[in-house]
Design brief:
By secondary structure, this protein is an alpha+beta fold. Helix content is 37%, strand content 21%. It has 3 helices and 4 strands, in the order βααβββα. Strands 1-4-3-2 form a 4-stranded mixed beta sheet.
Length: 118
C-alpha cells in the first residue's frame, strides 16, 4: 500500500527549472523535458510505494543535521537526477529534485554549517 505523497513547493519549482533548462539546452527540447519530468514523477510514485527503500542520507562534515531524516532516491532512467525526501508519519514529503552535480548540501541547507575550527 502506498503512503500519501506531498510534493513541496520547492520540488515543484525544481521540476519547472529542470524542464526549462532541458527545453533550452538539450537536443530533444520539449520531448526530452517531458520524458525527464515524467520519470521524476514516476520516481515520486515509487517512493510512495516503498518509502523505506532508500537509507537515511549521511550529511557531509560541517552540515548541521535537520530535524528530520533526509533520504534520497535516484531517478530511474535518468540517474543524473536525485529526489530528496523525508517521511513525516504516514506521509512522504518530497523536498527537492536536483541534478547530481549540484552542491545539494548548500542548496538544501544554505548556511547551516558548523565552523569546526577552534
Amino acid at each position: 500500500m502506498s503512503m500519501r505523497c506531498s510534493v513541496r513547493r520547492q520540488a515543484r519549482q525544481d521540476l519547472e527549472d529542470i524542464a526549462a533548462y532541458l527545453i533550452e539546452h538539450s537536443r530533444g527540447g520539449v520531448d526530452s523535458a517531458l520524458r525527464v519530468v515524467e520519470a521524476i514523477e514516476e520516481t515520486f510514485e515509487r517512493i510512495a510505494r516503498t518509502p523505506g527503500g532508500s537509507s537515511v542520507l549521511e550529511l557531509p562534515p560541517g552540515v548541521e543535521s535537520p530535524p528530520f531524516e533526509l533520504r534520497r532516491r535516484v531517478v530511474t532512467r535518468y540517474s543524473d537526477y536525485v529526489v530528496f525526501y523525508t517521511l513525516e508519519g504516514e506521509q512522504v514529503e518530497i523536498l527537492s529534485v536536483l541534478h547530481g552535480a549540484q552542491d545539494w548540501p548548500s542548496i538544501l541547507f544554505g548556511d547551516k554549517t558548523h565552523d569546526h575550527e577552534t
